[in-house]
């Protein structure tokens, strides 16, 4: 109920005009920003949905970038692995030729020169750096070289040659999020990619009476294994076998020592994370020595890398040892080629999975964008129509107001 007064018409007209201006301003803002929600009170429920959709859309875009970066890295790594595989095929051809027994010692030495150059190329590929400046095959230690070269004098050669190749990276794994609570595990360890044969540790220390004196944690190939106080050697071997690491533990029936053998071709990586269980058993040295070159002095080690196999071939050719080339060396080369082929296939599988995640993220972006548009975007056609109607109403209101107050001072001058 309104109180009628002489100011009522003027006040009510001014109020309606201001109200109309507010509506026009809100519609103009929607058209300008192309969003129908400027404040939470415009549509609280839609605003809540919109915030969640936009947040998820931002995460999906990051998931796509993560997967795309991974696929690029896999693609680059595949090129270097494939090139080393081609080199190994050529090395094997030379080994087969050198094992026939039809070559003179000078011929073998000439072939050793080519083998040595192929070895250098392999090491160069293994130390490759990606487009982003990170080392490709050093695990999570991406700012240094993956393999270090040790030069030395080789009998039969009149110059220094590569005597040993040591791994300088680590076996750390990267977990990259490519979906909500879904991760891809990235293994860039060069000790797996460029290894030739399964490795074995044969402990010579009698551990039949050994018992853990304190709780400790042993890390084997990046897997933590808890050793409890009072555990004997049989309990430790059982825990290693049940840990999921690619290692098989057993007790030597002759020496009663702990034997460890990898289930595939890679270099064993053992350390005492806490405590000193492995050092007490004599498998590794004290914690001042870092893996993988911390093996105990009494432990016999077998199994080498691709580089060890090629070095053995070169040295056998320099010595003119046809028998070694045709037996042990050729067998090791074949194992190395098989492992390199397996790692190449694994890299390709990881690439395909990363690309699948890229495609899924792209589809999710399209679907989420539609949800954001449904909740937040303004209907431009309807907004422009409403704005035009408001302008017509405003003009009509102003026209009526002008007619209501058309009296002037001249009406009173007679």
Task: Tell me about this structure.
The two termini are 40 Å apart. Strand 1 and strand 2 (160-167) form a beta hairpin. The chain is of the alpha+beta class and 414 residues long. It has a 4-stranded antiparallel β-sheet. A 3-stranded antiparallel β-sheet has the order 7-6-10. The chain has a two-stranded antiparallel sheet with strand order 1-2. The protein has helices at 8-33, 44-98, 105-126, 190-193, 233-241, 277-280, 306-319, 322-376, 380-404; strands spanning 147-153, 160-167, 173-179, 182-187, 200-202, 216-220, 223-227, 247-251, 258-262, 270-274, 300-302. Helices cover 52% and strands 14% of the residues. The longest helix is centred in the N-terminal third of the chain and has 55 residues, at 44-98. The mean pLDDT is 87.
Summarize the structure.
The protein has 414 residues and is an alpha+beta fold.
What's the helix and strand layout?
Elements lengths: L7 H26 L10 H55 L6 H22 L20 E7 L6 E8 L5 E7 L2 E6 L2 H4 L6 E3 L13 E5 L2 E5 L5 H9 L5 E5 L6 E5 L7 E5 L2 H4 L19 E3 L3 H14 L2 H55 L3 H25 L10
Antiparallel strand pairs: 1-2, 3-4, 5-9, 5-11, 6-7, 6-10, 8-9
Distance between the termini: 40 Å
Structural class by SSE content = alpha+beta
Which strand order spans the largest sheet, edge to edge or round the barrel? 8-9-5-11
Which bin fits the share of residues in helices? 40-55%
Strand percentage: 5-15%
Output mean pLDDT: 87
Encode the helix/strand succession as letters: HHHEEEEHEEEHEEEHEHHH
Number of strands: 11
Number of helices: 9
Low-confidence stretches: none
Shape: elongated
| Largest sheet, strands/sense/barrel | 4 strands, antiparallel
What is the gyration radius calculated from CA atoms? Answer: 38 Å
């Amino acid at each position: 109920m309104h109180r009628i007064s002489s100011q009522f018409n003027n006040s009510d007209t001014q109020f309606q005009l201001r109200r109309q201006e507010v509506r026009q301003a809100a519609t103009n803002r929607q058209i300008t920003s192309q969003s129908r929600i400027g404040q939470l009170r415009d549509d609280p429920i839609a605003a809540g949905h919109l915030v969640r959709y936009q947040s998820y859309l931002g995460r999906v875009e990051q998931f796509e970038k993560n997967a795309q970066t991974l696929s690029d890295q896999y693609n680059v790594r595949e090129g270097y692995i494939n090139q080393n595989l081609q080199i190994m095929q050529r090395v094997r051809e030379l080994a087969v030729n050198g094992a026939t027994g039809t070559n003179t010692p000078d011929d073998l030495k000439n072939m050793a020169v080519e083998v040595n150059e192929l070895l250098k190329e392999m090491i160069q590929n293994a130390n490759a750096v990606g487009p982003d400046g990170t080392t490709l095959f050093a695990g999570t230690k991406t700012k240094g070289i993956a393999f270090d070269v040790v030069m030395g004098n080789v009998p039969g050669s009149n110059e220094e040659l590569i005597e040993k190749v040591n791994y300088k990276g680590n076996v750390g794994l990267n977990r990259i999020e490519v979906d909500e609570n879904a991760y891809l595990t990235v293994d860039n360890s060069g000790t797996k990619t460029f290894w030739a044969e399964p490795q074995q540790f044969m402990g010579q220390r009698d551990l039949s009476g050994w018992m853990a004196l304190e709780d400790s944690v042993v890390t084997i190939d990046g897997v933590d294994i808890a050793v409890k106080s009072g555990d004997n050697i049989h309990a430790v071997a059982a825990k290693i076998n049940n840990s999921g690491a690619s290692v098989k533990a057993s007790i030597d029936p002759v020496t009663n020592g702990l034997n460890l053998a990898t289930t595939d071709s890679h270099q064993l990586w053992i350390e005492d994370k806490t405590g000193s269980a492995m050092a007490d058993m004599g498998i590794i040295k004290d914690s001042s020595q870092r893996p993988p070159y911390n093996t105990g002095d009494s432990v016999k080690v077998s199994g080498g890398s691709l580089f060890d196999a090629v070095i053995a071939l070169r040295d056998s050719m320099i010595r003119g040892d046809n028998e070694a080339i045709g037996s042990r060396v050729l067998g090791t080369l074949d194992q190395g080629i098989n492992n390199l082929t397996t790692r190449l296939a694994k890299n390709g599988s990881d690439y395909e999975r990363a690309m699948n995640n890229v495609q899924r993220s792209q589809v999710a972006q399209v679907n989420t964008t539609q949800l954001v548009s449904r909740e937040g975007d303004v209907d431009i056609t309807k907004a422009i129509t409403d704005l035009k109607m408001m302008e017509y109403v405003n003009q009509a209101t102003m026209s009526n107001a002008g007619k209501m107050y058309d009296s002037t001072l001249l009406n009173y001058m007679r």
